[in-house]
Amino acid sequence: MKVLTVVGARPNFIKMAPVSRELQKSMTEVIVHTGQHYDYELDKIFFDELQIPAPEYHLGVGSGSHGYQTGEMLKKIDGIIAHEKPDIVLVYGDTNSTFAGALGAAKMHVPVAHIEAGLRSFDRRMPEEINRVLTDHISDLLFCPTQAAVRHLAAEGITEGVHLTGDVSVDAMKAVAEIAEKRTDVLADNGLSKKGYSLATVHRAENTDSYLNLSNIVDAFSEIGDVVLPVHPRTEKYLKKFNLWDQLADHVKIIRPVGYLDMITLEKNARMILTDSGGVQKEAYILNIPCITLRENTEWVETVADGWNVLVGSDKDRIVGMYRDFRPASSPKNVFGDGNARTRIREIIEEYSA
Ligand code: UD1
Ligand code: UDP
Q1: Which of 68, 168, 276, 281 sits most deeply, having the most CB atoms within 10 A of its CB?
Q2: Alpha-carbon distance 97 to 131, whole Å?
């Protein structure tokens, strides 16, 4: 049997690493890289570190508007599906690459499997929310990380092909836990001590593309002071465009985006995490690090319900106030599964295609 996996952005690569290893035990996997992310630190570093096989196809789409990106991907995916004739097309998460892969397959009448199905922020202004909803509605197999995700799908009338597998991010973290434990160079190289800093990531369009929101975040980080920020290229572009880079660099340790192993090490040893990333909110929860989320909503609602994540948006005073006061009261529950989601996913795909 043949699976065609379509990926293109950093979080896609990280999630696919454990699943790809698992699938290749019993089936042929053809990897299509759309080229949505292309800088070494957002792309190849993950293939190298996590030993993901080199993609058979690279579409070289690059950056552009949502319409451009999705359209270019679709044009190229069509021909690959026609040539490869896969039994199933597999996509991850909520990026433009996810939706393009799913739509390309559905239009060619090839079953679609979606990993991280059923997530909802209920905010249609987020491009990712559109990608999630549309991908789920054209998927045949929907692998849900949580009970809430299963409920969201049911509320939209999707019950067939829905499987609660647990989250593959737990599998990914487990796979590198031991190595990340020993890897402290990223701390030493940046003059950091364990629990002596807070880690931040910012890249959501609603934060980066708005002067008001980005300047509020820069002011908050400047006041907090002990922040380390592996900067996403989108954020770097807007910090420079809005003349906020120098102020931030005066107060905060800005570093290049890091690989997954260094990122887990940075997260694990941080006092606090401030982020607008979906994946980083979840990792903070799994690692028991308090998380302040620079958004008004989240699709990872369990982390908030459990008291380990707070939503503060981009208001400077709310960010700084929460940074001072937020101390989770109880231990987090284990809501994201046992780290064996990949095995369930392989078995379900095998059964479906038998
Ligand atoms: C995309 C995803 C987002 C995900 C994020 C992970 C969509 C709609 N968004 O957002 O869900 O959280 O990836 O990081 O799919 N750029 C570079 N080099 C690169 C890639 C991007 O410089 O290798 C710059 C370009 O200026 C580009 C901008 O970043 O225009 C945004 O890139 P894009 O892939 O469109 O969206 P992300 O913000 O990365
Ligand atoms: N990540 C990383 N290096 C970084 C920043 C993030 O490896 O410099 C990892 C992070 O640990 C998580 C994933 O990237 O596994 C999250 O991706 P991102 O924040 O880009 O996207 P999102 O999850 O918001 O879609």
Answers
A1: 168
A2: 9
* Rg of the chain (C-alpha set): 20
Asked if residue 179 is part of any domain, the answer here is no
| Residue-level pLDDT at 178 | 81
198 and 271 fall within a common domain: yes
Which residue ranges have their beta carbon within 6 Å of ligand 2?
A: 10-11, 14, 201, 230, 257-260, 263, 277-280, 283
- The residue whose CA is least distant from atom 27 of ligand 1 is 63
DSSP single-letter state for residue 3: E
Interval 115-131: pLDDT, tens: 999 999 999 999 999 99
Tell me if 137 is assigned to some domain.
Answer: yes
What is the SS3 assignment for 124-161?
CCCHHHHHHHHHHHCCCEEEECCHHHHHHHHHCCCCCC
What CATH number is associated with residue 347? 3.40.50.2000
Secondary structure class of 311 (helix, strand, coil):
strand
Q: What are phi and psi of 114, to 5 degrees?
A: -115, 120
The per-residue pLDDT for range 183-192, each reduced to its tens digit, is: 779 999 999 9
How far is the C-alpha of 31 from the C-alpha of 50, rounded, in Å? 15
What does the alpha-carbon distance between residue 317 and residue 227 come to, in Å, rounded to a whole number? 16
With a CB cutoff of 8 Å and minimum separation 6, the contacts of 240 are none
What are the b/e assignments for 316-347, b being 16+ CB within 10 Å?
A: bebbbebbeebebeeebeebbbebbbbbbbbe
Number of domains present in the structure of the chain: 2
The residue to which tokens 């759309």 are assigned: 34
In this predicted complex, what is the ipTM?
A: 0.99
Q: How far is the CA of 115 from the centre of ligand 1 (A)?
A: 20
Look up the domain containing 127 and give its range.
Answer: 2-167+337-353
Q: pTM value?
A: 0.98
Q: Apex CA 201: angle with CA 198 and CA 205, to 5°? A: 150
- Closest ligand, as measured to the CA of 201: 2
- Whether 149 and 196 map to the same domain: the answer is no
